[in-house]
């Protein structure tokens, strides 16, 4: 049986992203395994079984092995891994939370990731996002489910300086968001001289 090749929905935007200046860098992140976890109050044994303390503070994320655990709600988290297949991650997480009354569902194909870096990244994001992105408020370890342009995203602060953010967007909105980001970054892109 032939294996299907995965094509990234933003494959065609890589060249346009590469033309951006260093003050606004946009990088398409490779696919990662993601599992949506539902679990009531987090018992101590969940952390041991999962190998990570799920964040219980609203709008935060923590490193989880080679991925992240992102707080999505009082009883919901997004757990990712860059080294496990979606099936492996789902099976591992399900085995950990099922005995505790929780559930785990593979949502790997639901979202794709972008990395935005550079000194003007906050300015670009502020054009379409109404949350306060100042590093004192939105520093490393913070997250938010918000709108960017008109696309729903999960925004992750990856540095305390405010110059490194991760954006998780639904695959079906990836093209729209890529176009929006390129347009929002246009004023920071130098015009070629003749």
From TrEMBL:
Top-rank taxon: Bacteria
Gene3D superfamilies: Heterotetrameric sarcosine oxidase, Probable tRNA modification gtpase trme, domain 1
InterPro entries per UniProt: SoxG, TrmE/GcvT-like
Entry-linked Pfam families: SoxG
Alphabetical list of SUPFAM superfamilies matching this protein: Folate-binding domain (SSF103025)
Record protein name field: Sarcosine oxidase subunit gamma
